[in-house]
Design brief:
mainly alpha
Length: 112
């Protein structure tokens, strides 16, 4: 006799999937902050926001050629990110937030 199959996990026990768009935006915001370019990047992105879907479509078209120089998956990820309207707005809002300050009292200091 064949034993019954186990029950599939409930939706409550499955961890939420990580949104790749959120990861791309967060990494870009972090990199721009480290370079001290958050303010200027925010202004440029806000001015160019209407062009984001067009640039995303151009990346899709140019992906075969750009794939000779860059990873095709990364090009596709950026094209998809630019096509989703809320991503650029979220990035601009993230860049407009003050940078997180480092903790004044580190708990892992070797002099404690």
């Amino acid at each position: 006799m064949i034993p019954p199959l186990p029950e599939p996990p409930s939706e409550d026990s499955v961890p939420p999937a990580i949104d790749p768009g959120a990861v791309l935006g967060a990494r870009l915001a972090s990199r721009l902050r480290r370079l001290g370019l958050a303010g200027i990047a925010s202004a440029i992105l806000e001015a160019g926001a209407p062009l984001a879907p067009l640039i995303g479509q151009l990346l899709y078209v140019a992906q075969p050629t750009l794939g000779l120089f860059l990873p095709r998956r990364a090009i596709g990820d950026w094209a998809k990110w630019l096509d989703q309207p809320g991503n650029l707005t979220a990035l601009i809002e993230d860049l407009d937030q003050p940078a997180p300050q480092p903790d004044d009292h580190p708990t892992h200091s070797r002099f404690v």
